[in-house]
Every structure is written in C-alpha cells, then in structure tokens.
Design a protein that fits this description.
By secondary structure, this protein is mostly helical. It has helices spanning 2-30, 33-59, 74-102, 110-138, 141-170, 174-202, 208-220, 255-270, 314-318, and strands spanning 228-237, 240-249, 277-285.
Length: 328
C-alpha cells in the first residue's frame, strides 16, 4: 500500500515540476498575466508534492516510544500546508493581477501559451482524478489534498485558457488581469476548505463518513450476544484508524469466551477497511436493566423479557452510557 502511495505522489511531483517549467516558458513567450497565474500556482503544486512525498514516507514509519499511535497525523499537516500555500499564492496573484488591471499590457504569442496551458489542463485533471480516487480508497488525506489541488489547477487552467482566448480575439487586455483575480479568489476559497479539513483531522474531529461506515458494519454483522455498544470514538491518524468502544456482554461468561468474542468483533471491523485499523474494546458485564433490550436466547439470569429493540445509529453508539430502557 505504501509503495503505491509513494509512487503516485512521486509521479505528481515529477509531472508538476515539468509542467511548471513549461508554464513559465509560456509566460516569458506571452507575458500574459493569466498564464503567469497558472505558472505561479504550479510552484505550489511542486512544493506541496515534495512535502507530501516526505509526509507519506514518514506516515509509513512504525510506531515508536515517542509516537505510540504512529506518524499518520503528518498527513493532515501536509494537507494543511498545501491549503496554506494555495491561499498565499492566491494573495500574490491578486496583487499582481491588480497591477495589470490598472496598467494593462499587451500580450504576445498567445498560440504557444494556449497550447502549453491546454496540455497542462488535461494532464493535471487526469492525474488529480487518479490521486483523489486512490486517496479516498486508501483513506490518505495527503493523496486526497494533492489530487484536489491538481484538479483545481486544471479548472484554473481551463478558466485562464478561456480568458486568454477572449483577449486574443477581442484585444481587450484588462480581461487577462480580471480573470486572474477571479480565479485567485476561487483558489483561496478552496485552500481555506483544505485547511479547515486538515485542522479537523489534527483535532480528532469525527469523520462522519467513517463513523457511518463503522455503524453500518456493526448493524449488518450484529450478534445477539453483543448486548450493547456505547461510547464509541474514532480517531484518524492519516490513513490509519483507531476505534475504541464499550461492548456489553453476558456477565456469566468466562474470560476465554469474552476474549473470543472481542477478537471476532475486531476482525469484523478490521477487514472492512483498506488501511490499518487499531481497535480497543472495553467490555462491560450486563446488568438487570439490560434485559429489556437483550437478545440473548435462553439466558439463565434473565429477569425480564425483551421489550425494546435499540436502533444502532451514530447517536446511540456514541453515547457514553448503557442504553437502559429509560434512556432510549
């Protein structure tokens, strides 16, 4: 898994470097503000891919005494840095394009510039699509952020190609700077969204998609002896996932039976994720109040019949309490 992620981000770096060189050549041939905007954005691609390359390497390192949960959170930091760089680039673009609006300059050989930017659009969108798709499959914030960034760069190129075409046809040169400013604002908004998501990951914000997936796995594989699940928490360490919860089991079971059930519970959850999943389970003995929703048949200590069925959902499983009848 690491090898494929490593190769993908390395490809992103090499392609980004080549496209950056090509776009700066296009700028020096045309002196188009819009093309300079695209070239400057490519610098961000290269720097972000270089750091993402290091982040994926570090995230793959095993746990140690100083990092008992591994190094996966570096992926959130990498994604956040990419967002910051996008915002900084957008600020510089606005500053440069504003000067072009005040004092518009004629652009030169636009045919070559348009050709280079058009090729870049196709390459960036294709690579960005692959990176984002693989990032989602492998639950890698770094790959997702880099893929989204490349797709954003492709969209920018498409917008800027349109603007340069209009300039080429109409010779209205202020459109060049105006298009750059519009796209810079679009860049900044997307950069802020990437930063927001990475901060959420660093602060262990609940990922609702992962939580829903865990809930659905448990509902689809529910065992009668799993009397109750509560206080479930999920933390993401890059692509790795840490899950802990309380599992209520019959209080007359011997320790060996409890251990087997917990192991089965962990296997059911772990096999459904493409990344490493670490599960910590705190087992609780059942109490008389649990009888109202307990599904265990022929229970030797049952004090009352089952009268309630708990709907396992995100809210119920996250509660830090057993689901006694009066709390349902």
């Amino acid at each position: 898994m690491f090898s494929k992620k490593y190769n993908l981000i390395l490809t992103s770096f090499v392609v980004g470097l080549l496209l950056m060189i090509a776009k700066f050549i296009a700028y020096y041939l045309t002196y188009s503000s819009a093309i300079l905007t695209d070239a400057l954005e490519s610098i961000i691609n290269v720097v972000a891919s270089a750091f993402a390359f290091y982040a994926i390497y570090l995230a793959s390192q095993p746990r140690d005494m100083n990092h008992p949960y591994g190094h996966g959170k570096i992926e959130f930091f990498s994604a956040g840095l990419e967002g910051v760089l996008i915002v900084l680039a957008s600020i510089f673009i606005v500053f440069h394009a504003s000067q072009e609006l005040i004092n518009p300059q004629p652009v030169l050989d636009l045919k070559i510039g348009l050709s280079i930017i058009s090729i870049g659009v196709i390459i960036n969108y294709g690579l960005g699509y692959v990176l984002e798709k693989q990032g989602i499959e492998k639950m890698s914030p770094t790959l997702i952020a880099d893929g989204q960034h490349l797709k954003l760069d492709a969209i920018s190129g498409l917008i800027l190609v349109s603007a340069v075409l209009i300039v080429y046809i109409t010779h209205i040169y202020w459109i060049d700077g105006f298009a750059s400013i519009l796209f810079a604002l679009f860049m900044a908004w997307n950069g802020i969204k990437i930063i927001r998501k990475s901060i959420g990951g660093l602060m262990d914000e609940t990922n609702n998609e992962v939580l829903e997936k865990v809930v659905n796995i448990l509902k689809n594989n529910q065992k009668s002896e799993w009397i109750d699940i509560h206080n479930m928490r999920i933390q993401e360490y890059g692509s790795d996932i840490h899950i802990d919860c309380h599992l209520t089991l019959p209080n007359y079971w011997v320790l060996e039976k409890v251990h087997e059930t917990v192991h089965e519970f962990e296997e059911i959850l772990g096999k459904e994720f493409p990344s490493h999943v670490e599960i910590f389970i705190h087992t609780d003995p059942c109490m008389p109040e649990c009888c109202h929703y307990c599904k265990v048949e022929n229970c030797p200590i049952r004090q009352s019949p089952q009268t309630t069925v708990i709907d396992w959902n995100k809210a119920n499983l996250s509660l830090n309490q057993k689901h006694f009848a009066e709390n349902i």
